[in-house]
Amino acid sequence: MHRYRSHTCGALRESEIGETVRLSGWCHVIRDHGGVLFIDLRDHYGLTQCVADKDSAAFSGFEKVRSEWVVRIDGKVRRRPEGTANAELPTGQIEIYASEIEVLGPAAELPLPVAGEQEYPEDIRLKYRFLDLRREKLHQNIMTRGAVVDSMRKRMKEQGFFEFQTPILTASSPEGARDFLVPSRIHPGKFYALPQAPQQYKQLLMMSGFDRYFQIAPCFRDEDPRADRLPGEFYQLDVEMSFVTQDDVFAAMEPVITGVFEDFAKGKPVTRNWPRIPFAEAVRKYGSDKPDLRNKIVMQEVSEHFRGSGFKVFARMLEDPKNQVWAIPGTGGGSRAFCDRMNSWAQGEGQPGLGYIMWREGGEGAGPLANNIGPERTAAIRDQLGLKEGDAAFFVAGDPEKFWKFAGLARTKLGEELNLIDKDRFELAWIVDFPMYEYDEENKKVDFSHNPFSMPQGGLDALKSQDPLTIKAFQYDIACNGYEIASGGIRNHKPEAMVKAFEIAGYGEQEVVDRFGGMYRAFQYGAPPHGGMAAGLDRIVMLLCGTNNLREISLFPMNQQAMDLLMGAPSEATPKQLKELHIRTNLPAKG
Length: 591
Hints:
It is a single chain. It is built from 19 helices and 22 strands. By secondary structure, it is an alpha+beta fold. The chain folds into 4 domains: 14-105, CATH 2.40.50.140; 135-270 and 481-492 and 528-586, Bira Bifunctional Protein, Domain 2 (BirA Bifunctional Protein, domain 2, 2-Layer Sandwich), CATH 3.30.930; 295-418, GAD-like domain (Gyrase A, domain 2, 2-Layer Sandwich); 435-472 and 494-526, no CATH class. Strands 6-9-10-22-21-20-17-11 form an 8-stranded mixed beta sheet, with helices on both faces. The chain has a 5-stranded mixed barrel with strand order 1-2-3-5-4. Strand 14 and strand 15 (365-366) form a beta hairpin. Helix 14 packs parallel to helix 15 (495-504) and helix 16 packs across helix 17 (517-523). ATP binds at residues 221-223, 484, 536-539. This is Aspartate--tRNA(Asp/Asn) ligase. Its EC number is 6.1.1.23. L-aspartate binds at residues 175, 221, 450, 491. Keywords: Aminoacyl-tRNA synthetase, ATP-binding, Cytoplasm, Ligase, Nucleotide-binding, Protein biosynthesis.
């Protein structure tokens, strides 16, 4: 017999009854039933109940072990006594009557429990991540992550893509976040950067004649932690294709992402034919460039009903042609208590409030706005929004450029409070026609709004003749359930157009050559039209696992302060290390 096991803890069934077997694993739960001791023995594959009574040679050994001790147990497979079978366990029809137990690895007192899924402080969980990862839900999430990667690889290869590995030590890149810099020992005073994304390399692969690239790529960004992105590093399904239009990218990638979701949706519906929603429409209808389409609330402009009305606050705003009034319908929200609660929520978000109209029995509008604009206008708003008695509408007004994000938050809040979100489905969509540029208020300049390497719609002519803030790009995102899970674009592969695009954002030609010399040179020697995208592996797995915390789907994540509590990173370098790298620290004064 094998030194440690003849079977795993998830393998035994009724067909093995009567066999002598050997199992090894962790003592998951230990129970004393008055002279009969039970150990639920756990390994990666499952759990098997082992039992010893006072007639068993293993009884004294069973008495000594504690939770999470690693043991080997020999014994005979037998059917569980009548009425004690566990239908929820694959091994639930049998148990092992133990004849021998050997302690392979005793465990100290546990800093957090492994059995059960109770909440525990995150910093303790991260410091003892090796224990945390033994817990069933997290352990399963990690296995799901690996299976999602396998599904992605399989589907990408079926679409004719080939997997490449691009460099980890590279040059600094303007991807929109801070780089992690790596000092060079051989070249004093110079630094490599960890890639924020393999953007330039994957485009260079297209210049090199490779046609369909993909990679499960690690990306590194030195940015502040947030709920939907891990600090430091994340992984993405990175893709690039030659001789393609935007439609070709969509046709290749939509079945891949749909298929991955269907593989792990556990029966939940997944969008088959994805809608394509222009950025401006997404903002206008949903107040988000990553709308949650499970929420059926659609906002509408209702400016005409307030223009020249008795509600002077809105009427005066509308004297400025750039201002508008938007309505957010709230089906079933027509009670004073609910409307007041939404108004208080808006004030908590830094807004002066959230105007509303309620429709009560008989269809009459109620509330301060209804009283000010009168019954005809109130009825017209109700008819436009398709509302009925018992419903409400909430209003935001001003310059849409400044309020659309808040309107989106209000739409989400209403959807949650009124149970208008069908949470048992995955709604996927392409968001298209992103603006090429935006105005940077802080620096008073035009800047790229998304990926600087994207092709402007209209090409070089648009760059030369249009107001930059009106230029749309061949740029697209994938939205799912309120998250951006992918982003991509058709690339600007013409040197003159690339230089002009960066010039509009304040970069001179020499700066373009200095910063993107490799790609700029490659464009001079026959560049194919190309495009691609990158899908966030972490966010996709997070959605499929039904959690809203990326730490629940990652092996060894950092905490919210970007610290690895398990390994003790970041840590101070030794004087010898700093000397070899020609670095002297200049720490901020302690306050």
